[in-house]
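Exercise 7. Given the encoded structure of a 495-residue chain, write a plausible sequence.
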């Protein structure tokens, strides 16, 4: 009994070694064939590149000739500039052809002829232009017809022969490429057969390893359970840190409001004093003008009211910013309450509430129904979509009828809402910047403090989603909200 088992094991080992050795040889041969095919493919691509350069040279030659003829008929400066540009480009293309064909003796000889004919052609053009300036168009045409046309024809013929040489090379290389591909397929097929044979032999030994695999799987499951616990603990730590940040923002906002209220109060008192002080200056100016200097008059009549106005506008802006921070802080502490949502009906309500504004700016909002139903927080989803639609209507492009389209689709187990507009668009470098707090993009000709999109992103994150923007200036913008179709509360609850 032991001898057959030993022979069997030896046979399996020999089969495995032989199979893998054959597989290595076949794969090596296949790789060689593939590398040969790639090399031929590179040569084919090189041939196309050379032919393209020759075609470009021929086109520039015709452009030079057209510019020359045009200048002889009408000696305009723009035609002369076109001629110079074409000559310069043609020289550059010849240099490129030279670098591409440096390993081809036939093309090297043809290129030398091409350069000689090009120089002669340019010399004839220069002479005809000089004659056009001194003796008129007839003399210039006659001088060019005497020798220039023959040079031009030789130039065209040389370029044509070079193209034919590249076509010949292309045909040869294509045939070699097809042969290499066929050989690669054969080698790959042989490799596949050898692989199947090796797989059949190794299946015997794999059965013996099932027990070890099961043991490893059980160990991996234990590790995953520990990892999940660690992730939950880390999430809880992050949640506590986030709560602490929100409490800090709330406290700081309240602390900032107290001195701000004092500044606003004293500004009002200063504003109330300005009027009687101005009246007193007016009275003194009438009764005893020598007592009031021009500096005092300007201070009371202009400088003081202007300074109070600056202080008031600044305190009002700071008050709005503090209110924004407070709103974001309160929203961060609000408990998420998931429920089934009909997003189509929700959007209908948003559009109805904006109908007056839409009529005023001449815009329309289209909702592509049906929209997927989701289970999430009603307030958060409504705030996100309302903000995106309102922004689309707010930043329309002047002179273009506004159109906003809202659509949704399912992708990779998530629901993606899109709000697309044809407004003035957003510079690509600002696509991430606009989601930062108090940051705005483009012309600041619309009211706002730069908190809307920051609020939208914060809400999207809380719902397990993301928000992104795709736009370019003058071409409108598309905002995409990707979120799970059903919000899942973590083990500590949504906070």
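Solution.
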């Amino acid at each position: 009994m032991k001898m057959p088992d030993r022979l069997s094991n030896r046979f399996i080992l020999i089969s495995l070694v032989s199979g893998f050795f054959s597989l290595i040889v076949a794969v090596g041969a296949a790789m060689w064939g593939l590398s040969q095919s790639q090399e031929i493919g590179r040569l084919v691509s090189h041939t196309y590149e050379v032919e393209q350069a020759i075609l470009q040279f021929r086109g520039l030659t015709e452009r030079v000739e057209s510019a020359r003829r045009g200048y002889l008929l009408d000696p305009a400066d723009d035609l002369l500039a076109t001629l110079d540009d074409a000559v310069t480009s043609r020289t550059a293309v010849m240099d490129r052809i030279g670098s591409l064909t440096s390993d081809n003796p036939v093309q090297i000889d043809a290129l030398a002829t091409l350069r000689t004919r090009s120089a002669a052609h340019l010399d004839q053009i220069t002479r005809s232009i000089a004659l056009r300036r001194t003796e008129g168009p007839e003399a210039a045409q006659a001088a060019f017809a005497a020798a220039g046309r023959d040079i031009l024809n030789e130039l065209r013929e040389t370029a044509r022969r070079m193209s034919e040489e590249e076509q010949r090379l292309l045909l040869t290389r294509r045939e070699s490429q097809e042969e290499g591909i066929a050989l690669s397929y054969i080698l790959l097929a042989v490799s596949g057969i050898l692989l199947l044979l090796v797989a059949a032999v190794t299946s015997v030994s794999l059965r013996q390893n099932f027990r070890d695999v099961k043991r490893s799987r059980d160990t991996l499951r234990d590790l995953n359970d520990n990892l999940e616990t660690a992730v939950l603990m880390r999430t809880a730590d992050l949640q506590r840190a986030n709560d602490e940040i929100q409490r800090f923002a709330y406290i700081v906002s309240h602390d900032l409001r107290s001195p701000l209220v004092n500044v606003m109060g004293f500004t009002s008192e200063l504003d109330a004093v300005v009027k009687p002080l101005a009246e007193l200056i007016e009275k003194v100016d009438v009764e005893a003008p020598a007592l009031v200097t021009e500096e005092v008059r300007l201070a009371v009549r202009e400088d003081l009211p202007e300074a109070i106005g600056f202080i008031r506008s600044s305190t009002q802006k700071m008050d709005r910013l503090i209110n924004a921070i407070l709103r974001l802080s309160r929203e961060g502490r609000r408990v998420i309450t998931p429920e089934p949502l009909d997003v189509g009906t929700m959007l209908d309500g948003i559009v109805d509430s904006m109908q007056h504004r839409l009529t005023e700016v001449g815009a329309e909002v289209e909702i592509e129904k049906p929209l997927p139903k989701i289970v999430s927080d009603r307030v958060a989803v409504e705030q996100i979509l309302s903000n995106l639609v309102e922004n689309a209507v707010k930043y329309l492009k002047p002179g273009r009828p506004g159109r906003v389209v809202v659509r949704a689709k399912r992708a990779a187990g998530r629901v993606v809402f899109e709000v697309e507009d044809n407004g003035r668009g957003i510079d690509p470098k600002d696509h991430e910047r606009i989601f930062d707090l108090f940051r705005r993009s483009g012309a600041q000709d619309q009211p706002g403090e730069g908190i809307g999109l920051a609020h939208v992103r914060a809400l999207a994150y809380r719902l397990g989603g993301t928000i992104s923007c795709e736009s370019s200036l003058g071409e409108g913008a598309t905002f995409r909200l990707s979120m799970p179709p059903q919000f899942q509360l973590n083990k500590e609850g949504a906070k």
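Remark. The first strand starts at residue 338 and ends at 341. Students should compare their own answers with the one above.
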